[in-house]
Amino acid sequence: MINVAVLGYGTVGSGVVEVIESNKELISKRAGEQIEVKYILDLRDFPGDPYESKLVHDVNVIMEDDSVAIVCEVMGGVGAAYQFTKMALNKGKSVCTSNKELVAKYGPELLGIAKEKGCNYLFEASVGGGIPIIRPLNSALTAEKVEKITGILNGTTNYILSKMEKEGADFEDVLKEAQEKGYAERNPEADVEGHDACRKISILSSLMLGKTVNSEKVYTEGITKITAADFVYAKAMGRSIKLLGVSRSKGEENLVMVAPFMISAENPLYMVNDVFNAILVKGNMLGNSMYYGKGAGKLPTASAVVGDVVDCARNQGRTIPCLWDAKEAVLADVDEVERRFFVRVKPEGLEAVMAAFPGGEQVDAGRSKDAGYVTPSLKEKDFAAKAELLGDALLGKIRLGD
Ligand code: HSE
After folding, report:
1. From residue 399, how far is each of 162, 238, 257, 264 by CA, in Å?
2. Which of 73, 100, 247, 361 is least enclosed by beta carbons within 10 angstroms?
3. 135-294: which CATH architecture?
4. Pocket perturbation via mutation, ligand 1, pick of 153, 156, 160, 199 by most ligand atoms within 8 A of CB
5. Closest atom, ligand 1, to C-alpha of 277
């Protein structure tokens, strides 16, 4: 029998217990041994909860119990979660987590401890919730040189953008409604400002490169400036607006960034709507492959954590190889990247825009309140310098993607 401890009895933690209990027989069969939840750690009490008897408040009970081989860290944050993960790994207990903040910040260190102690640190649920993406990158695609990863990595923002597109609603109104329905956090900053997507693309990029992509150095722009009017222009261009995490090798450097992009209907990510996530991976032999599914939510995320539990059970006494060196990858300067931009300006600013970015195309969306224009390809820094000269006339800008 393999005993498991769950750290954190919140949404994902209760999901982990539910997945293990609901699918116990087949999970145990696949693991090769009976999987049992022995402890649940939480500061709170849960009177009347069916698993109340497993609840402990002191982490040492778990750490001192040699019969616990696997710990699921689903607390979140980088404080106690970091401390408890290190304690568990140092005791030779494998850790499975959904905590992208911790993985992005301390991944190589925690993987290093796991290797030293002959156990595992697995984090499938940290990116794309229930979508398998860490394991494909780490095993099925090991024959590939991955050249590019593009992902819709945040369910909340994809839900907001999809609703804005469908209903012609503005960002603030959709956010408010999403919060009322419990889809968006009360403090939505990490999602809407792109920080959550940034941690996820940093983790994927680190696995792609085998070196650390420091999420704090990744250019990140959220969706708060996107308006209903932008979607009218996007539609007129046969495009959609998506918050993308992008990572691509560029010679010795690597471009990693998060920003809203206007993408064409030919892009496979175009049809990814609502809370769904998708990750498009381009390998040098395989070409494109896409991983699609529920990127958040209790059971999808818990399913990925429990999948890792099964992997840990199957690999007791052996550390599954994961190439992620602590050495930092060199990031390309986003300012030097060339691309086209969609700009929305006051009608009286159109002439100035055409003069600033000659050779572009005007977009007719049948609006009188503003005008749309697509610039020719130019460096981000040159675009920014010219856009600044437009002053108040500039109402918005969005990068054009494939
Ligand atoms: N807030 C995240 C999202 C949860 O909306 O995608 C999953 O990481």
Report:
1. 18, 15, 12, 12
2. 361
3. 2-Layer Sandwich (3.30)
4. 156
5. 6
pTM of model > 0.70: yes
Is ligand 1 within 6 A of the CB of residue 151?
A: no
| Contact assessment for residue 301 and residue 19, using Cβ atoms and an 8 Å cutoff | no
16 φ/ψ angles, rounded to the nearest 5 degrees:
-60, -45
Residue 155 Cβ < 6 Å to ligand 1: yes
CB 196 near ligand 1, within 6 Å: yes
pLDDT at 400: 98
The token pair at 46 is: 């849960």
Task: Indicate whether residue 295 lines ligand 1 (CB < 6 A).
Answer: yes
Token pair of 292, please? Answer: 């699609």
Task: Read off φ and ψ for residue 324, nearest 5 degrees.
Answer: -150, 95
pLDDT tier, 204 (very low <50, low <70, confident <90, very high otherwise): very high
pLDDT band at 250 (very low <50, low <70, confident <90, very high): confident
Domain boundaries 335-400, CATH class: alpha beta
Token output for 213 = 């992509």
Give 112-127 pLDDT, tens digit per residue: 999 999 999 999 999 9
Residue owning the nearest CA to atom 4 of ligand 1 = 296
Distance 131 CA to ligand 1 centre (A): 12
Ligand 1 atom 8: the closest Cα is on which residue?
296
pLDDT digits (tens, 9 = 90+) for 346-374: 999 999 999 999 999 999 999 999 999 99
Q: What percent of the chain has pLDDT over 90?
A: 95
Active site residues: 200
- Residue extents of the structural domains in the chain: 2-129+298-314, 135-294, 335-400
Token pair belonging to 147: 């050249």
- Report the separation in Å between the CA atom of 126 and the middle of ligand 1, taken as the mean of its atom positions: 9
Residue 183: per-residue pLDDT:
76
Q: Is residue 260 lining ligand 1, measured as CB closer than 6 Å? A: no
Q: Which CATH number fits domain 2-129+298-314: 3.40.190.10, 3.40.50.2000, 3.40.50.300, 3.40.50.720?
A: 3.40.50.720
Task: Report the nearest-CA residue for atom 7 of ligand 1.
Answer: 296
User: Is pLDDT at 326 greater than 90 in this prediction?
Assistant: yes
- Tell me if domain 135-294 and domain 335-400 are identical in fold: no
pLDDT, residue 331, reads: 96
- Compute, in angstroms, the gap from residue 297 CA to the centroid of ligand 1: 8
In angstroms, the CA 224 to CA 171 distance is: 7
